[in-house]
Write a structure and sequence with these properties.
The protein is built from 13 helices and 15 strands. The protein is of the alpha/beta class. It has a single domain, classed as Carbon-nitrogen hydrolase (Nitrilase/N-carbamoyl-D-aminoacid amidohydrolase). Helix 3 crosses helix 6.
Length: 364
């Protein structure tokens, strides 16, 4: 199929999926629900609700919306003023809207979908491009309505975003208590399989002042590198959120490389919200948690709260003290050697030679 025909066919498929996502239907479904009210922010203490989401393919938008409602309601009933969902909340489950997704994800070669997806023989980027408009619409309408109905802030995990050139990004979204979209954050560091598929990277680290603190939300792989979190922290971020989805079983040391470590380097509260479950034969695992600098945690281990398991759906809450964090930062202000950094940065990065191996950028 030539590029022109592919674009034509993609446009038809996008419109067919969009027709299945009716904003009015989502709002009517949610209008008939009961909602708890989030406590108004008090300025010092903030109650965080963390959703460890079970990812599963949803063939109907109504099923997807029902799951989001149930989990948001559970967090707000426990006093959550900021509810946090994982990466891919607005993408993988909604892939179930694509008819024959299991066959398409196998690459048409009879392979298990998970194998074809990992090795790049499945047309993942094309499927994401087809899904993106419908997924983005369902995700936005559902979370905007839920945030407004509960009067709470919601970091709605990530969904798919398309730019005018057809590039595909993973984009986290933050909604306010009035339902307004307050901030977006595109993933700036890709997982190797995402690079293999041909996804694109964001180039900005966003930070926003809100009544529940100064927030930032680099996505998943971004927390494997210290730079995105340090950039957010230098811009004043107090709660640094990691919406993540790891296609692997939970492993303590592998997960420890991320947000827990980052908030020890750049003192802030950290939130790790993970997807669990099985989608297209792939297992997702991880133990969600709320973390702090060691000195601000009750037992000195940097852990404020964690999910009880690494493979089942859970919702839990933790309260963080922003004034205590601000005092800690004042008392432990870093002594940066700016002259040294100016000498080597950005030259040190620019001198690194970037190559590609198996579709992935590698610095040599």
């Amino acid at each position: 199929m030539n590029l022109r025909m592919e674009r034509f066919a993609t446009g038809i498929a996008q419109r067919a999926l969009l027709a299945r996502v009716r904003p009015g239907s989502i709002r009517r479904q949610l209008a008939g629900k009961r909602y708890p009210s989030a406590p108004p922010p008090g300025g010092r203490r903030v109650r965080l609700g963390v959703v460890q989401l079970e990812g599963r393919l949803c063939a109907r938008v109504a099923d997807y919306v029902e799951q989001l409602y149930r989990l948001t309601k559970c967090a707000v009933e426990d006093g959550a003023q900021l509810v946090i969902f994982p990466e891919d909340t607005g993408s993988y489950p909604l892939a179930g809207l694509i008819l024959g997704i299991e066959c398409l994800a196998s690459g048409g070669k009879g392979k298990p979908p998970s194998e074809a997806v990992r090795e790049g023989s499945a047309p993942v980027l094309l499927l994401f491009r087809i899904l993106a408009p419908a997924a983005s619409r369902a995700h936005h309408v559902a979370f905007s309505t839920l945030a407004r109905s509960c009067g709470t802030h919601v970091l709605a995990g990530s969904t798919l975003a398309l730019d005018s050139a057809g590039r595909v990004y993973k984009e986290a979204r933050l909604y306010g208590p009035d339902g307004a979209l307050l901030m977006t954050q595109r993933k700036t560091h890709l997982f190797p399989t995402e690079a293999l598929w041909g996804m694109s990277r964001g180039e900005v680290i966003n930070v926003i002042q809100t009544p529940v603190g100064v927030l930032a939300s680099p996505i998943c792989m971004d927390h494997t590198y210290f730079e995105p979190v340090r950039i957010a922290w230098l811009q004043g971020a107090e709660i640094i959120i990691d919406p993540a989805a790891d296609a692997a079983r939970y492993e303590f040391w592998a997960q420890r490389r991320g947000v827990w470590t980052r908030v020890q380097e750049s003192p802030a509260y950290g939130v790790h919200a993970l997807m669990v479950g099985h989608i297209l034969g792939d297992e997702f695992g991880g133990r969600s948690g709320v973390y702090a600098p060691l000195a601000l945690s009750p037992t000195g281990d940097g852990v404020l709260a964690q999910a009880t398991t690494g493979d089942t759906e859970e919702v839990f809450c933790a309260t963080v003290d922003l004034e205590a964090l601000r005092a800690y930062r004042r008392e432990h202000a870093p002594d940066f050697n700016l002259a040294l950094y100016r000498k080597y940065t950005p030259q040190a990065y620019m001198q690194a030679r970037a190559t590609r191996q198996n579709g992935r950028r590698v610095v040599a």
